[in-house]
Amino acid sequence: MFKYTKLGASIALVTLTMVSQTIHAAGFALNDHSATASGNALAGSAASNDDISTSFWNPASLTNTDKPTLYISGALILPEMNVTVNSASDATGNDLSGSASPGDIVDNGLVPSIIYAHPISEKTVLGASLNVPFALSGEYGTDWAGRYHSSKSEVSDIAVAFSIAHRYSDILSVGASAQVHSTTVILESAITDFQGGNSANGDGFGSIKADDIGVGYALGIKIEPQTGTRIGIGYRSKIDLTEKGDVEYKNIGPTLINAGLDNANLFDKITLPDVLSFGFEQDINDKLTLGASAIRTGWSSMDGLNIAFDIGDDNVKQANSVLSFGFEDKWFYSIGATYKANDKLTLRTGYAIDNSPATDEFRSARAPDGDRQWISLGGTYAFSEATTLSFAYTNVDIEDVKVNRNGASEDAVRGRLDADYETSADVFSFGMNMTF
Fold first, then answer.
1. What per-residue confidence (pLDDT) applies to 187?
2. Bridge partner residues of 337 (DSSP)
3. Which residues neighbour 254 within 8 Å (Cβ) at sequence distance 6 or greater?
């Protein structure tokens, strides 16, 4: 009748579809690692000589300082998502109703970033950093019409990096880093009772929790072929992970119990995407600098998942569940300007286009992702030669998208869902740069 392997996959939809409620950047990436760079929408970030915060995109930027330096940044993301369910039904065709509260679907989030640079010679700098490259937190609840597709998704990817950068000359700087990523995933959804939740016991509930630690690296080069012209290229590697955890079910009906559904350990191998950043900056005069960025994220490394189950409580090993996501490699483009108003105040602005890796065919309630446009404003105020405060505001406009799941293939147990999504976000960033 209904295969438990499909149900296990429908609950997990693992790490790749947990990206639904990351609003600021396409997919489930976060780009909020520098209040300085956010002020001009990351324009020229891989080539910038403003401070050390842009070392996330290019580790060669650690040579921007010749003193011990600490940069602490935080971005407050205030998202809003409105969902209109046009129609929904369970696996047997029973109509479903219920809506998710717009204020509760996506959570406000604070994204931290800490970078420390320590010169060990006139030309060589060591560094250490903590960033959150990928993350989300969102919850529909268990009463909305799409509850079999998703009720809650949480993920965090915390990266610690140890870096070295060397300035060979006034023209050339290079850098590299080794990274350790710690990821945690929580995914939850309601479990169908095949009666639209109207059976005596109602819907069941399923939850997956998994985590892993992976390693990667970053490389970067920055060139200033002539005074005032800067070119930077940075590369962050893919991160291979084997997420291990458990699936736990509650209030499961006899049909699914008889099909073999039960609590079990599981694992799935995934690969977080690599990121290639190109940056360009040109000083027009001693006050005005123009910049541009092109950043490619290799989302195609996350083309699907293959969930493997251990033997469960009934001593039956569930067969692997295989799902496809159809993510595509995508580019982020931005242009921006930096203006030095006076010795204390520097102003910034920028515009960006951030293309989503999601496709119409595979878009789901866990991943209702759309293309984005950024408009950013920001600046830096120097309290002294040793201390500066950077600030930025970004408005993120996301295209309206439709989720249309027809109940086939991996949706055989979750049923049908036709829903429209309207999403936007405001982001406020602050960063403190201190030299010692």
1. 82
2. 290, 349
3. none
What single letter denotes the amino acid at residue 376?
A: S
The torsion angles phi and psi of 108, rounded to 5 degrees, stand at -65, 150
Tokens describing residue 326: 């159809």
**For residue 219, what are its two tokens?**
């490389």
Rounded CA separation 304/324 (Å): 4
139-155: pLDDT as tens digits:
888 889 999 988 887 87
Q: What is the DSSP letter of 273?
A: P
Distance from CA of residue 161 to its chain's centroid?
A: 18
The two three-digit tokens of residue 436, written as one number: 């010692």
Tokens of 370: 């759309």
142: Cβ–Cβ under 8 A, 6 or more apart, which residues?
151, 190, 203, 205
pLDDT tens-digit readout, 164-207? 999 999 999 999 999 999 998 888 889 888 899 888 888 999 88
CB neighbour list of residue 226: distance below 8 Å, 6 or more residues apart? none
Mean pLDDT, the chain, whole residue set: 87
CB 10 within 8 A of CB 49: no
3-state SS record for 308-324? EECECCCCCECCCEEEE
Where b means 16+ CB within 10 Å and e means fewer, 299-329 reads bebbeebebebeebeeeeebeebebebbbee
Cβ atoms within 10 Å, residue 128: 14
Go through the domains of the chain in sequence order and give each one's CATH number. 4-435 (2.40.160.60)
CA 144, CA 146: separation in Å to the nearest integer? Answer: 6
Contact between residue 18 and residue 211 where contact means Cβ atoms under 8 Å apart: no
Supply 340's token pair: 């030095």
| Of residues 259 and 131, more confidently modeled | 131
**Could you tell me which residues are beta bridge partners of residue 435?**
69
What's the CA gap between 346 and 363, in Å, rounded? 41
Q: What percent of the chain stands above pLDDT 90?
A: 57
Q: How far apart are CA 5 and CA 10, in angstroms?
A: 9
Q: Could you report the per-residue pLDDT of 12-35, keeping only the tens digit for each?
A: 333 233 333 455 566 678 888 999
